[in-house]
Specification:
Radius of gyration: 25 Å
Mean pLDDT: 93
Low-confidence stretches: none
Number of domains: 3
Shape: globular
CATH topology of the largest domain: Jelly Rolls
Largest sheet: 7 strands, antiparallel
Strand content: 25-35%
Number of strands: 20
Distance between the termini: 17 Å
């Protein structure tokens, strides 16, 4: 096993042995292919010499492999969780203008580079006196690839286009909506003091950059012919749940879960509001990426064996299989769970390959043929 990995190097030999195994190359064969001294190649394989860009360029020009195969997974620091305090979110504040007028104030909430979501706190700065979806002062976006779950705080109008027809839904605190990719939409506030805001959790589900990059290599005509059908036109692109109509689940009179907006486009993602009527919830450990926003004045969360105190507006990101427990009586949390690359199909295949082979899956370090 390679014992030393330079975390500061973008490229790493961590996958090189697996690459050579897959294309059935011994080190002597590989060295011959790319015109490299065998001793230098062995130093790379043993982690004693780092891979540079010239090696990667040569390798991908000779072998049927990708540049991303060499990217060092240890380049970034890794942690099971990340916390962003409200005071730090405020530091990221920036006002977006539309049509020459202030339209939104954006603030970052917790984000992690390996997480599928990019959640924002957004204060709506455009005030309206009516509910006219055709109001010319509204500034629409074009929609985006990321899916979006939105939680509303205050009096906000949500506008969207359905088959090019402009529509509006009057939203209030606790209401929620799911917005499908590429649905044009906008928001305006009915509050004169401009105190209304949304928590907009945009996230990639199954269509990530790897999928995009593979689609680019395929024939568009064949994709349209074989992948899309007319029945897909009837799929509901917007779904919403008003606060009073949300389904409540009460467990042991201690935990109240209010189901928020959902969609069969992203069936493995969940969006909910949780209120603790006792001092703690049960421990949770599962394969989902989790985003947590504290809605109440105070709250706490126990992550692994460490307890983190939170204040309103603080946010937490948790990696899959991270043990956690919500704490503090009468605290209220907004929670988003998203299935990442470790979907059910992948987890089932891993389990069948077996735990004894996990180290080889993570880090193949020997020649098998």
């Amino acid at each position: 096993m390679i014992k030393k990995i330079n975390k500061r190097n973008i490229f790493s030999s961590i996958r090189l042995r697996q690459i050579l195994n897959d294309i059935k190359r011994r080190p002597i064969d590989a060295a011959s292919d790319i015109g490299m001294n065998l001793n230098i190649l062995n130093l790379i394989l043993n982690g004693k010499k780092e891979i540079d860009s010239s090696f990667v360029k040569k390798a991908v020009s000779v072998w049927p492999i990708k540049i991303s195969d060499f990217v060092n997974p240890y380049y970034y620091e890794n942690s099971n969780f990340k916390i962003m305090k409200k005071k730090d979110s405020i530091k990221t504040s920036r006002t977006m203008q539309r049509g020459g007028n202030d339209y939104y104030e954006y603030q970052d909430t917790v984000m992690e580079r390996n997480a599928p979501f990019k959640p924002e706190w957004i204060r709506v700065l455009h005030y309206v006196k009516n509910n006219n979806a055709k109001d010319l002062k509204l500034k629409w976006n074009k929609g985006h690839l990321l899916h979006q779950f939105t939680y509303f705080v205050g009096e906000i109008n949500f506008y969207y286009k359905d088959r090019n027809v402009k529509k509006v839904i009057k939203m209030n605190t606790g209401d929620s909506v799911y917005i499908s990719p590429y649905v044009p939409h906008t928001f305006a506030t009915r509050n004169k003091d401009l105190k209304s805001f949304i928590i907009a959790i945009t996230f990639a589900d199954k269509i990530n950059t790897e999928i995009q990059n593979e689609l680019v290599t395929l024939d568009i005509k064949n994709l349209n012919k074989n992948l899309f059908s007319s029945k897909d036109k009837n799929i509901k692109k917007i779904s919403f749940i008003k606060y009073d109509n949300a389904i409540l689940k009460i467990k042991n009179n201690k935990i109240i879960t209010r189901g928020l907006a959902k969609s069969n486009i992203v069936p493995n993602s969940s969006f909910s509001e949780i209120i603790l009527k006792d001092k703690s919830s049960q421990e949770i450990i599962d394969p989902y990426h989790r985003y947590i926003y504290l809605l109440s004045k105070n709250g706490s969360i126990k992550i692994d064996k460490s307890t983190k105190n939170m204040k309103e507006g603080d946010t937490v990101y948790l990696k899959p299989f991270t043990s956690h427990k919500l704490l503090k009586k009468d605290s209220k949390f907004l929670i988003m769970s998203v299935e990442g690359n470790l979907n059910l199909q992948v987890r089932e295949q891993l389990s069948k390959i077996g735990g004894k082979n996990l180290k080889r899956i993570l880090y193949e370090n020997s020649q098998w043929f």
